[in-house]
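Need tokens for this chain, all 290 residues.
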Amino acid sequence: MTKTLLTVESARTALRELLVTNVRELSIESHGRPLPLRLYTPPGQGPFAVLMFFHGGGWVTGDLDTHDGFCRLMCEWASCAVVAVDYARPPEHVFPAAVQDCCAATDWVVERGQSLRLDPSRIAVAGGGSGGGLAAIICQWASDQGKPQIMFQLLLYPLLDCLAQNPSHKEFAEGFGLTAEMLEWYIKHYVPSGTSRADPGLSPLRSKCLHGLPPALIITSEFDVLRDDGRAYAIQLKEAGVSVLHKEYPGMLHGFINYPAAHDDGKQALLFCAQTLQAQFRGEELTAGA
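Here are the structure tokens for all 290 residues:
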């Protein structure tokens, strides 16, 4: 029997493939403009379940690098691929450009994912703040048109209503990180003049039909101007028959998951998100113990 000779280079490659998350920069076309994507894949051969990730930052700020840590952790801890979408931002590109890009990226993964060792039948979406709103919108869009099939949505302190005047918008208007003034600044940059803020493409909380949407984990922060957006959406989804798990973190501010070194709750929330994602990709029911 012929023995396979182990070389130094092949040994190095084997260890790297076993332990290291692979990261690739990609670019596709969306509505006549280039759309950068970043693909994270865990060690192994796949095909891998896919998490579509839409970054936060009020649509205006944020990019692939600002939320790179979250994507790497979800890839590693949930053993799934992550496709981070660098959607077009205002003021250069206003609504609905970001929504169009997130739709285009999701469609692209469904159509081309198998060539990248991705499993188009197991797709989840996630995002924080404005990115959480985009994730919710993509689920509604997919449900309305009957495809692609999205199996789970992970919404982190999501921005879901551009007209909201609920208690958290008043109680935490200033002094708690994201302020009401800054939120309005973001919205004014993103929403074109003459466009209704009640449009479900801007305010998915105002959609008239939430039936048939994928199960959701909604994370909210107690001291967050957007807290009541997430609370209200969890209630409305449940009333529409959608399986929902809502978890609120006491004493936390908007975006706390981005700072796990500063908050033990941030580390616990990241782990909880990864465990829940992994369970959903395995086809398990959504439970608080996931």
